Amino acid sequence: MSFIEVEDLCKTYFIAQRSVGVWGSIKSLFRRTYREKKAVSDISFRVERGEAVGYIGPNGAGKSTTIKMLSGVLVPTSGTVHVGGVVPYKERKENAQHIGVVFGQRSQLYWDLPVSDTFELYEKLYDIPREVYMRNRDYYTELFQMEDFIDQPVRQLSLGQKMKANIAIALLHDPEVLYLDEPTIGLDVMSKKVLRESIRRINQEKGMTIILTTHDMDDIEAVCSRLILIDQGRKLFDGTLSRFKEEHHRDNMIKLEFKREMPEWKEQDGLSLAEAADSCWRIRVKREAAPRDAVITLLNLYNPDNIYMEEPKIEEIVESIFVGQ
Amino acid sequence: MGKYGCIFGKAFKMQAVYRVSMYLGILKSLIAFFIQVSLWYALVGAGADNSVSFSDMTVYLVLNSAILTLTQANVAADIEASVIDGSVSMHIIRPVSFKFYTLATVLGQNAFRFLTGAVPVLLPGIFLAWNGFTFPSPVYLALFLASTLIGMLIMFELTYVVGLLAFWIQRCWFLKWYLDAGMAFFGGTVVPLWFYPQGLQAVSRFLPFRYILFEPVNLFLHKVSVQEGAVSLAAGGIWLVLLVWLERSVWLLALDKMTVNGG
């Protein structure tokens, strides 16, 4: 039996239909029609202990709804969820002892008190044995570089500092699985880097299972080895990151840079000019053509001052999947 | 110290963060107390009813502000806010009972309000009521303490049930207004029920409000017999059981119905 098992999971919301105009809103005070919205539709997947899974999709794809059912906040409309043998929404407290959850858009910290107060609260809430608490507190304070601000009131902290603290407190009780719902949302490049690095280390050093939803594909590349892609509540892909890149491998891009006057572009088999800017070309190499041959051809033909290969980013692949639909 | 003790402590600590607001709060309690005392001094002096002395009235006012600070729970507004912005989900992923978490928080806040709102009026209160005041006998004191505890819990349950309605109607702050009105009118927090006509007094017996504050004060002042006190204590207890049952049913429905707003 896998650590996390999700079978045919569905969640349907009822959304009140608003009518247009003043008269419409008066009418809707008396009679209201509801529309069904399937946020999650027949999703199944399994996650083994110690895996780091990226759960991605555009806004409204059903990512957060899935996380909320996994963590026991929401009751599924149909289908089953098991996490470590527990049905999360039925045994909320039992489930809570074994999971850590961070919702990027919410804080679990006391606004007016220092982070260390919330740390103490979590020690009690989760009945963490003293030595485990001390060990984890020191470990995560160092890992997330929190020494400087742990005794400052939360209201004076930056967004990145708060996010680090939120992830740290979700980990104090050594959960078996960590759910991260958009942990890097709104953060600067440096904070993102520290977070990704830390999450990867937690996954590798502690063997903690991690489920990460994000819009930032760099998060996934830094942390996850597996990817689940969903849209409109349905699963589109489930597999390793490398398989994802292979399967959805699109054309390669080559960039040529000229420090002299630009030569004239001549059409070639398998090559096309995607973009011509001031002093460089971006050339698309059809996926069937070998990049090596393309480079040689381009060098011989145009003799550029510089030549760069660009690997396709997952972001572009995902985008092309959605555009292609 | 258990988890709820810790929650209590943090809630207390949070109230103490803003010092100026604390000092202004103390000042406010003192001013409010002296206004009420002056008003009742004039009213009791002018009235024909001799069953209530100025000393009784002062004790009433002191206890009134003390118990009000202990029962002042704006749970409804807190739950409403967390349902509207979706942060209620944060409570559900913690291994605590949402109700006891809320109760511990409310008690922590109220303990602080008690210190800043009730303790400051205690000294002038004792001074003013000294003439003609007798301390309650052990039996009455025990009944007083028991009924105060029940009163606090009734008030908490009332506001908690109202707060849970936020899961359905989202906005429920105005329901708190009904509770406050019920408290002011049938709970005797503005004008003690002693001065009420028979009809209204009878109605108040079938509502939970008088058992929160008025009955404890009655016992403290020996205004009722021990039997009557025991009856009202039992009535308060029945209300509490009813409310706990209601609150549990509503909570189970709420969990099933819950959707979490915003991302």
What is the fold's blueprint, element by element?
The complex is a heterodimer of chains A (325) and B (263).
Chain A: E1 4-16, H1 21-30, E2 34-47, E3 52-56, H2 63-70, E4 78-83, H3 92-98, E5 99-103, H4 115-125, H5 130-143, H6 159-171, E6 177-181, H7 189-206, E7 209-214, H8 217-223, E8 226-231, E9 234-240, H9 241-247, E10 252-257, E11 271-276, E12 280-285, H10 291-302, E13 306-310, H11 314-324
Parallel strand pairs in A: 3-7, 3-8, 5-6, 6-7
Antiparallel strand pairs in A: 1-2, 1-4, 8-9, 10-12, 10-13, 11-12
Chain B: H1 3-15, H2 19-46, H3 54-71, H4 75-84, H5 88-92, H6 98-129, H7 138-164, H8 166-169, H9 173-186, H10 198-205, H11 214-220, H12 226-257
Helix pairs in contact in B: 1-6, 2-3, 2-6, 3-6, 4-7, 7-9, 7-11, 7-12
Shape of chain A: globular
Whole-Å distance between the termini of chain A? 34 Å
Q: How many angstroms does the end-to-end distance of chain B come to?
A: 36 Å
Q: Number of helix segments of chain A? A: 11
Report the C-alpha radius of gyration of chain B, rounded.
Answer: 20 Å
List the chains of the largest interface with their residue counts: A-B, 31 and 28 residues
Strand content of chain A: 25-35%
Number of strands of chain A: 13
Oligomer: heterodimer
Largest sheet report of chain B: none
Find the structural class of chain B using helix and strand composition.
mainly alpha
Can you give the mean pLDDT of chain A? 87
Structural class of chain A: alpha/beta
- Ranges of chain A where pLDDT stays below 50 over 5 or more residues in a row are none
Query: Sheet bearing the most strands of chain A, described?
Result: 6 strands, mixed
The main sheet of chain A orders its strands as 5-6-7-3-8-9
Number of helices of chain B: 12
